[in-house]
Amino acid sequence: MSLKRNILDLRKRKQEVQKGGGDEAIGKQIAMGKMTARARILSIVDEGSFHEYDLFVEHAGRDFDMEGKVLHGDGVIIGTGTIYGSPICVFAQDFTVAGGSLGLMHARKITKIMDHALKMRVPLVGINDSGGARIQEGVDSLAGYGEIFFRNTLASGVIPQISVILGPCAGGAVYSPALTDFVFVVENISKMFITGPSVIKTVLGEEISMEDLGGAKVHAELTGNAHFYAISEKECFEQIKKLITYIPWNNTQKAKIFPVKEPVSKYKIEDIVPADARLPYDIRDIIKSISDGSEFFEIMELFAPNIVIGFGRMNGETVGFVANQPKVLAGVLDCDSSDKAARFIRYCNAFNIPLITLEDLPGYLPGVDQEHAGVIRHGAKILYAYSEATVPKITVIIRKAYGGGYIAMNSRHLRADFVFAWPTAEIAVMGPEGAANIVFRKEIAEAEDPEAMRKQKIEEYKEKFANPYVAAARGYVDEVIEPQETRKILLHALQVSANKVDNRPAKKHGIPPF
Ligand code: HXC
User: Fold this and answer.
1) Could you say which of 88, 224, 363, 511 would form a disulfide bridge with 403 (CB–CB 3.0 to 4.6 Å)?
2) Distance CA 514, CA 507 (A)
3) What CATH number belongs to 269-429+467-496?
4) 107 within ligand 1 shell (Cβ under 6 A)
5) pTM to 2 decimals?
6) Using an 8 Å Cβ cutoff, are 426 and 466 in contact?
7) 3-state DSSP assignment of residue 313
8) For ligand 1, atom 27, which residue shows the shortest CA distance?
9) 99 C-alpha vs ligand 1 centroid, how far in Å?
10) pLDDT tens digits, residue range 265-323?
C-alpha cells in the first residue's frame, strides 16, 4: 500500500471507531439531552489540543453474547489535552457503546490514563456515564473498578482529580468519584446511586424515581457528594475550566498567578455587618470586599450553607476561604458544615493553597439530633484539618467567636499564623445571655427585680468579655484591626507567610476522625 492509501485507511478506521455506538444510540443519547463522550471532551479542552489514545482497543469479553461483538473503543475515550494551556489527562465513558459499561479493556484504558496523569503530575478529569460493571465480564469488571479505586487513592493529594457525572453512575462505580477531589453534577442528567430503584423496589418494596433517589440536586443539597451543580452540560464545562484556573497541576506546585485586580466598590466592607450583633448578613459580601476583583468561586454552595468555602485570589494568587455564614443557622458548626470545611481545608493544605478563615459563629449546634448524628466525631474533623494544615493560615474574627467554635475556626491554639479581630469581635466561652444566666443565677434569682438584674448582669458580662481585648491581652489575637484595613492586612500577612516552614513529627499518617 502506498503511504497515501495507508493514510486513507487509517482515517477510515478512525472514522469507523469514532462512530461509537452508532447513529441510533447517539440519537438516543442526544434525545436525552446529553452530549456524546467525544463532544464533551472537546468542549472542555482547548481547541485542537485533544490527543486520543487507545482508540482501537476492543473488548475482551467471551461470555454470553460478547464473542464477535464489536464495541468501539470498548465504551470509553481517553487522552490528553490542555485547559487554558494547562495540561490535563481525561477519560469519558461512552454510553452509546454497551451503556458505557466497564469491562476489562475499558478499565485498562481508564487506569492507563490515570497512571499517565500521576506520572506526569497533571490533573485528571473523568467523565462518568455508565451502567456500571459490565455484567457479561463478571469478575474482570469488578477487578477493573478495584484497580481504579486503588489509583484514585494513590493519586489523592498528589494530582487534582475531578469527576463529572453526566449520566448514570451506578453501583460500585460511584466510589471512584467519591474518592476524587471534586464532583460535578448536572440537573436532570446526573444519577448516582449504589442500588437503583428496581432493586430498592424488589428488596424494600419502595417506589422511587432515579431523580429522587440520586439526581443532581440530591447530591448537591442533601448528601454532599457533589461539589458543583450546573443546569446544563455547557455550564458544567465552564465550571470545570474555571476550577482548573484556581488549582495547581500537582502538589509540588502553586496555582497560576493572575494579574491583581482591586475589589469592586459595591462591596464596601464597613457597611456589610449590621451594628446589632443579632442581625444576619451575607459573609460572601465580606469575602468579595477582600478578594481580587471581588471574585469568589464557591464550592458546595447548596450543601451545609451555614459554612461557605471556595477559592478567590489575593494579589493574584489563589487562596481558600472558609467562612461562617451568619445568614444560615447563625453560622453554627454542625455535622455537615464540619465535614464540608474539613475536607476543603485538607484540599488546600495538600495543594499549597493558603487559607483565610472569616469567623462569626455562636459555636456548635446544640440538640439531640446533632449529638446522635455524631457531632462529636464530625465536629472533630475541622479541628483535625486546621491543626494538621501547614499552609499559611490566617483568621479574621468579625463578630462572634464563642466556645468550641472559637477554637475550631483556626484559632491561634490550632496554629493559626495570624489572628486578626475587628473591634466588633466577641470572644468568649458563650454568648452574654447564656453566660449571665449561668454565672449569676443566684444573684438573679434572689434580686428584687430578677429581670432588671439579668439585664444588668448581661451588660456587665458584655462589657468585660464580649470584646476582642481580653484575647488580645493574652496574645491569642495578634492585632485588633479596623474593617476597612482587612484586605491590606491580609495581603501583608500572606506576603510574609510565603516561605512558611512548619515541620511536624514524622509519621506514616495520622488517624483523622473520618
Ligand atoms: C452490560 C449494560 C449495563 C451493564 C447497561 N448496559 N448497563 N451492559 N452491563 N451494567 C447496556 C444495556 O444492556 C443496553 O444495551 C445499553 O447498555 C443501554 O442500556 P439501557 O438499559 O437501554 O439504557 P437506559 O434505559 O438509559 O438505562 C440505563 C441504566 C440501566 C439505568 C444504567 O441500563 C441499568 O440499570 N443498568 C444496570 C445498572 C446497574 O445496576 N449497574 C450495577 C452493576 S453492578 P443494548 O445492547 O440493548 O443497547 C456494579 C458493581 C461494581 O457496578 C462494584 C465495584 C466495586
Assistant:
1) 363
2) 18
3) 3.90.226.10
4) no
5) 0.95
6) yes
7) strand
8) 131
9) 6
10) 899 999 999 988 889 999 999 999 999 999 999 999 999 999 999 999 999 999 999 99
| Closest residue CA from atom 38 of ligand 1 | 131
Q: What is the CA radius of gyration of the chain?
A: 26
The Cα 190–Cα 209 span in angstroms is 13
The Cα 132–Cα 312 span in angstroms is 36
**What phi-psi label fits residue 366: left (phi over 0), alpha (psi between -120 and 50 degrees) or beta?**
beta
Q: CATH second-level architecture of 11-246?
A: Alpha-Beta Complex (3.90)
Instruction: With a cut of 50, list the residues of the chain below it in pLDDT.
Output: none
Listed in order, the ranges of the chain carrying CATH 3.90.226.10 are: 11-246, 269-429+467-496
Distances (CA, A) of 236 to 90, 218, 233, 361: 15, 17, 5, 32
- Per the CB < 8 A criterion, the answer to whether 120 and 283 are in contact is no
Cell numbers 490535563 correspond to 88
Mutate to test the pocket of ligand 1, among 32, 74, 135 (most ligand atoms within 8 A of CB): 135
Best residue among 34, 101, 165 to mutate for probing ligand 1's pocket (most ligand atoms within 8 Å of CB) is: 101
**99 and 25 Cβ atoms separated by less than 8 Å:** no
